[in-house]
Amino acid sequence: MGLDITAVNQAVFDHPIEKCENYDHTNLIFTYPNPDFPDRADGLQMGCYRFTTLFDFRAGSYGGYNGWREELARMALNATLKEIWADIDTFKGKPFFELINFADNEGVIGPTTSAKLFRDFANWSGKAQLVSGYGPFSFYEPYLKWMRAFYLAQDHGFVIFH
């Protein structure tokens, strides 16, 4: 088990989720706004959406993803995940906050939040590359995948955590 990420762009609501049973990811996908983070969905409703482009990747095991997210928090906010979660108001709006303070298992991040996160990824890319270089076990390789996902989703799309 682990965290998979799917990003789409130019998404248009098609129908409620009750009728979205046999979708195949070719042009129809469903969203589940996480009730613990309703603002991250940017008003998207639960249901099936048609889209233009899809990008997906495996973010890792839950533990692996949280380790990567810990490194992201230390790099950009000079704080641990526990420190951020204990003092949310201090970190709200800072780089990567909307990703750091989000579920690690399910939910959706909408286009407005995706645009903000894409800007964060673009602005911090140079520093992120210095954290561990580039390669299959580096910090930067998944960083680039996240940046691509949020770039795509900012164009009237979303990023699904599943």
Structure in words:
The protein has helices at 62-77, 81-86, 88-91, 97-100, 111-132, 140-153; strands at 3-8, 12-15, 28-31, 47-50, 54-60, 107-109, 158-161. The mean pLDDT is 92. The strands form two sheets. The protein has a four-stranded antiparallel sheet with strand order 5-1-7-6. With 162 residues, the protein is an alpha+beta fold. It is globular, with a radius of gyration of 15 Å. Helix 5 (111-132) packs antiparallel against helix 6.
Key features?
four-stranded antiparallel beta sheet, 20% strand, three-stranded antiparallel beta sheet, 162 residues, alpha+beta, 41% helix, 6 helices
How large is the count of helical segments? Answer: 6
**Overall form:** globular
What is the averaged pLDDT score? Answer: 92
- Calculate the terminal CA-CA distance, rounded to whole Å: 10 Å
Strand count: 7
Supply the number of structural domains: 1
Order of helices and strands: EEEEEHHHHEHHE
In short:
The chain has one domain. It contains 6 helices and 7 strands. The chain has helices at 62-77, 81-86, 88-91, 97-100, 111-132, 140-153; strands at residues 3-8, 12-15, 28-31, 47-50, 54-60, 107-109, 158-161.
